[in-house]
Amino acid sequence: MNANREIFPLAFGVVDSENGDSWTWFLQLVATNIIPPRRNVCIISDRHVAIDCAFRNVPQLGTPLIQRRYCLRHIRSNFMSQFRSKNLKKLCWRAGSTPILNEFTNYMQQIRGANERAFNYLDAIPKEKWALCFDGGCRYGILTTNLSESFNHALKGCRTLPITALVRATFDKSVQLFVERRNAGMMWNQSGYQFPEKIRKQIMDGWQQRRHTVVIPHNYHSGVFSVAIENATPVTVDFSRSNCDCGCWRMNWMSCSYVHAVCLFLDRPVNQLIPEVYKLTSYINAHAGDIMPLPNMNEWPDIGIHLLPPKYLSRTSRVGRRQETRFQNEMDMRPSRRRGQQ
Predict the structure, then answer these.
(1) Are 133 and 201 within one domain?
(2) What are the CA-CA distances from residue 260 to residues 210, 216, 228, 273 (Å)?
(3) For 128-161, how does the pLDDT look when each residue is reduced to its tens digit (9 = 90+)?
(4) Is 236 helix (H, G, I), strand (E, B) or coil?
């Protein structure tokens, strides 16, 4: 992710199928050539057995600095394949997305009351892998792989191309993405902004919500305050631990409306609490490099590898477009637009 919470492509791989060998090959190269040493990295994925295999086979991915988290959307989809219930579907998402431990416990007990097997299914999954309140801030509040899948969707038409054309189309799309984001960063910088667009909007939304709050100081020295919004239950904001009872500050690394209210009370700029990873300078630096044009193929060096011809795959005599091999699941279903149907 970049500083604007957008997908930032790091590596692409062309493989014959999604299996343990291909994922091991890909993640081994990522771990060796891309992940910096002594850096904390969080990898969000589904629970595909091939990815499990890669994590077992790549030693670099077994260090405490590399954390794996599951996409909550895939967790819910697999959950729904076992337990078809709209109520359980809703409770599963709420349990996984809440940053508050007490709320997680409450939702899980509701699931248990509705279906003991459904509770056992979720309880068997390591909580830090799918439940935000146990994450510890590793995933920066990112619950799903939706952004990467939307980027994959933009490249969907490339998958049926020959490999050379596929690589070229992916390269051109990446160049276009970098140019657009570099230009956006320059424009925001010229406008005097300190943060990218999405982060700036999030800060402004929190600043607007702080108007209807009551702040009660408990300890100025250690920075402990009680904050209530209108008639809601007060929450505790602790500046010394960068923590708020709502959980958002600790899990998203972004100050919430309660923290903004305390900043207003103290006449303290909230911008000082935003980490460097969300600042415009980080966004600009991420897209500062140039992706140079590809040289003419006649100028490519000889790498001394015997190139094999592509495998011949016989096509059926069926008329029309080839059917996709990807199986649809609950995540692909969309609500009907007809009146009276859901």
Answers:
(1) no
(2) 6, 14, 12, 10
(3) 999 999 999 999 999 999 877 777 777 777 777 8
(4) strand
SS3 category, 216: strand
Q: Check residue 299 and give its pLDDT.
A: 85
Per-residue pLDDT at 337:
47
- Tell me which residues of the chain have a pLDDT lower than 50: 327, 335-342
Residue indicated by tokens 């935003």: 274
- H helix or E strand, kind and range, residue 178: helix 163-190
**One-letter amino acid identity for 227?**
V
- Angle of helix 257-266 relative to helix 197-209, nearest 10 degrees, comes to 70
**72: exposed, middle or buried (Cβ count in 10 Å: 0-12, 13-18, 19+):** buried
* pLDDT, tens digit, 9 for 90 and up, residues 213-247: 889 999 988 899 999 887 778 899 998 888 999 98
Q: Left, alpha or beta for 234 (phi > 0: left; psi -120 to 50: alpha)?
A: beta
User: Do residues 132 and 279 lie in contact, with contact meaning Cβ atoms separated by under 8 Å?
Assistant: no
How far apart, in whole angstroms, are the C-alpha atoms of residue 7 and residue 288? Answer: 16
Kindly state whether residue 7 falls inside one of the protein's structural domains: no
**Structural domain containing residue 214:** 197-273
What pLDDT score does 233 carry? 83
Q: Are residues 127 and 36 in the same domain?
A: yes
Quote the CA–CA distance of 58 and 172 in Å, as a whole number: 31
Q: Residue 340: what pLDDT? A: 44
Q: How far apart are CA 283 and CA 251, in angstroms?
A: 21
Neighbours of 145 (CB within 10 A): 20
pLDDT of residue 313: 62
The domain tally of the chain equals 2
Closest among 299, 227, 291 to 263, alpha carbons compared: 227
